[in-house]
Amino acid sequence: LSHRADSVFRALEEIEFDGLNPKDYGVAEILKLRETLLANPQKDLSLWADLDILLTNALLKYGAHLLNGKVDPTLLDKSWNFSKRETEKPLFELLISAYETNTLNTFFKALRPQNPLYLNSRKTLKNYTLLQKNGGWQKLVWQGKKTKLEPGDTNVFVFALRNRLAQEGFLDSANYTTDSVYDLPLQAAVAQFQQQ
């Protein structure tokens, strides 16, 4: 498969980060067919055509859902007063152009809502999804008689807490240590986490 085709598969990997279900776009079927074609040295043109059709359908559907959502809001509420977002050209023309110029990432980025709340939610979902796929968080288990940490306290729990907050981006590397002391940077990271 070409470099351009790889960009198509990278685009499909982004579907779940937009809060969409990859099953609705046939991603598993597409990936299975891709593996079959890569493993088979014979050129079965009908299977390549099937892959092309499935990919085109998935990408157009994904683009349309990014642009205007999966559900027509007027079906949920007749008084919905937001107009649909439009593109300057039909979606399929924009998709072809993006594929030919190897700019699929830019194409989908432009179709996404640009609302900061949406973009932050997408970023958070992507981070948590990738974290979960890489084994998730270390379980935090309290050990000790005290029920509350105070600055300066030492506990093996602190090390796990420090790792967890660093993984989630609440504790930067400049304030990251491997010790088990509940220090001021860690206390600030806990407070930031609690405000989220």
Q: How much β-strand is present in the residues?
A: under 5%
Mean pLDDT: 87
Helix content class: 55-70%
Helices, by number, come to 9
Largest sheet: none
- Number-wise, the strands total 0
Element order, helices and strands?
Answer: HHHHHHHHH
* Morphology: elongated
Residue ranges: pLDDT <50 for 5 or more in a row?
Answer: none
Please tell me how large the radius of gyration is.
23 Å
Q: Give the terminus-to-terminus CA distance.
A: 43 Å
Structural class: mainly alpha
Task: Identify the notable features of this structure and list them briefly.
196 residues; mainly alpha; elongated
Structure description:
By secondary structure, the chain is an all-alpha fold. It is 57% helix and 0% strand. The chain contains 9 helices and no strands. The chain has helices at residues 3-13, 27-39, 45-68, 73-76, 91-100, 104-111, 116-133, 156-167, 184-195. The chain is elongated and about 65 Å long. The two termini are 43 Å apart.
